[in-house]
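User: Please fill in residues for this 197-position structure.
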C-alpha cells in the first residue's frame, strides 16, 4: 500500500473517531436540563406562594427588574413560576443553557429555613424568641404555649409546669429553626405560633 493511501486511511480513522466521540458526548448531555444542574431544593408549581416569595425582597432591590415591576405580588409569583418552569426544563442544547442555569440557581431554589421564613412572614410588632432572650421571656412563651396548645401540641414537650416546660419549649425552638421550611410545614407553623412574641 502506498504512503498516500495509508495517510488517507489514518486521517479518515481519526475523523471517524472524533465524530463518534462527539456523538457519545452529545448523547450523554442531550438529556441534561437546567434542573439537573442545580443541587439545592427547587421551587415547584406545588410550592406555596409563601415559599416563592422568599426571593421577592431581593428581586425588588434589583435595578434591572427583568421579570417586570412588582405592583402585584401575586402576579409576580405567577410570572416567576412560569419563568422557572420554562427555564428548569431547558435542555443542554439550548444556547442559553449556562446563563439560565446560573440565573435559575438563584431564583428557582427553595433554601429558606424555618427561622428565616417565620421572620419574613410574621408581620409587624412580632419578633422571634431567641437563644439570647431571658428565662422570663421563655417562661412567657411557655405560658402562651400551655394556654393555646389545643390541637397544636408539640410532641417533644411533655412538661405540665412552667418550671420545666420553658426549657422544653426553648429546645424545640432552637432545634427547629434551622430545618428546611417547605419540608416541615407543621413544625414551621408551631414555631410561628410559639417561638415568637
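Assistant: Residues filled in for all 197 positions:
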Amino acid at each position: 500500500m502506498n504512503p498516500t493511501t495509508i495517510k488517507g486511511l489514518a486521517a479518515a480513522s481519526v475523523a471517524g473517531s472524533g465524530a463518534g466521540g462527539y456523538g457519545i458526548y452529545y448523547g450523554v448531555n442531550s438529556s441534561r436540563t437546567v434542573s439537573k444542574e442545580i443541587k439545592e431544593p427547587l421551587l415547584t408549581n406545588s410550592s406555596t406562594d409563601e415559599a416563592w416569595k422568599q426571593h421577592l425582597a431581593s428581586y425588588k432591590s434589583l435595578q434591572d427588574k427583568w421579570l417586570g415591576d412588582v405592583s402585584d405580588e401575586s402576579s409576580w409569583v405567577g410570572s416567576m413560576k412560569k419563568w422557572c418552569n420554562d427555564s428548569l426544563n431547558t435542555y443542554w442544547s439550548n444556547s442559553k443553557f449556562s446563563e439560565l442555569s446560573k440565573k435559575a440557581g438563584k431564583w428557582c431554589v427553595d433554601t429558606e429555613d424555618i427561622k428565616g421564613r417565620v421572620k419574613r412572614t410574621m408581620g409587624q410588632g412580632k419578633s422571634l424568641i431567641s437563644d439570647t432572650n431571658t428565662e422570663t421571656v421563655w417562661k412567657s412563651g411557655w405560658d402562651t404555649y400551655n394556654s393555646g396548645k389545643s390541637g397544636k401540641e408539640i410532641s417533644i414537650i411533655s412538661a405540665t409546669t412552667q418550671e420545666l416546660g420553658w426549657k422544653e419549649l426553648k429546645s424545640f425552638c432552637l432545634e427547629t429553626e434551622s430545618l428546611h421550611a417547605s419540608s416541615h410545614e407543621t413544625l414551621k407553623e408551631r414555631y410561628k405560633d410559639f417561638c415568637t412574641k
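For context: The chain is about 60% helix and 0% strand.
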